[in-house]
Design brief:
With 241 residues, the protein is of the alpha+beta class. The chain contains 4 helices and 13 strands. It folds into 2 domains: 66 residues; 163 residues, no CATH class. Helix content is 32%, strand content 29%. The strands form 2 sheets. Strands 1, 2, 3, 4, 5, 9, 10, 11, 12 and 13 form a 10-stranded mixed β-sheet that branches. The protein has a 3-stranded antiparallel β-sheet with strand order 6-7-8, covered by helices on one side. Strand 1 and strand 2 form a beta hairpin. The model has no long low-confidence stretch (mean pLDDT 86).
């Protein structure tokens, strides 16, 4: 279990049990009509101690997490992605509930084909593509991919055969921006890939995951990059797409 998850659980417990104790102390002070000076003192010290203890724990755990974390504090990074299978784009499962996301509070997706990394990054793996697929209920490695969809779990492996009979393999490409020019690289170990520390996309990553014939470059491009290029914000490589 991640450190931020553990501390979050402890913080919730501290607030919950602290609130229960406070309510009990308040109930006692209201229930007893005539409080002696010594009992008043005891109740006051008890209430004060509970409030201070919970506050110190919450503040201390927050400071500790920020100090020992990989990001040295809260961040807000984004990376766009698309998943293609035999020429057809695949969507993740639609989020449900008030939170409108799949994943965790720190790492999730909002049905927008965008990885959201928000909060304190405990270690570098917390910003990896592998961790993202893990928290949404799937996985990715060099040869296979598993993702949750509205029709259930979809699992694909290299040497996968499409309907047309062609053999496909898992390949991952990442678009980045440098000096207003976007370019792409092929990723050999997608599970370990760490998304760029960028808030906006672009210049944040555009990650293309596809099962297709072996190739060095992809012809797919995230919508955010297409829009940015159409308004002149970025340009593609001269010998690129």
């Amino acid at each position: 279990m991640q450190l931020d998850t553990v501390l979050s659980s402890y913080s919730f417990s501290a607030v919950f049990y602290g609130s229960v104790v406070l309510l009990l102390l308040v109930f006692i002070s209201l229930k007893i009509k005539k409080l002696s000076s010594s009992l008043k003192k005891i109740l006051f010290i008890s209430i004060f101690s509970v409030v201070v203890s919970v506050t110190i724990f919450l503040a201390g755990s927050t400071i500790y997490l920020n100090v020992v974390s990989f990001s040295r504090g809260p961040v807000h990074y984004h990376a766009d992605f698309e998943i293609w299978n035999c020429g057809w784009e695949i969507d993740l499962k639609d989020p449900r509930g008030i939170s409108n996301k799949i994943g965790t509070a720190t790492l999730h997706e909002h049905n927008d084909k965008r990885i959201h990394l928000e909060g304190v990054v405990v270690d570098s793996k917390s910003a990896s593509l592998g961790r993202f697929f893990e928290v949404i209920g799937g996985h990715i490695n060099q040869t296979s991919l598993s993702i949750p969809t509205n029709n259930g779990e979809l699992s694909l492996k290299s040497d996968y055969m499409c309907e047309n009979g062609e053999i496909k393999m898992l390949q991952v490409f990442v678009y980045k921006v440098k000096n207003g020019i976007y370019y792409q690289n092929k990723v050999d170990a997608p599970k370990n890939y760490i998304i760029a520390p960028e808030t906006n996309v672009p210049p944040g990553d555009c990650i293309i995951i596809e099962f297709d014939s072996f190739k060095n470059k992809t012809d797919k491009l995230c919508r955010s990059y297409k829009v940015a290029e159409s308004i002149g914000k970025i340009k593609g490589e001269i010998n690129g797409n």
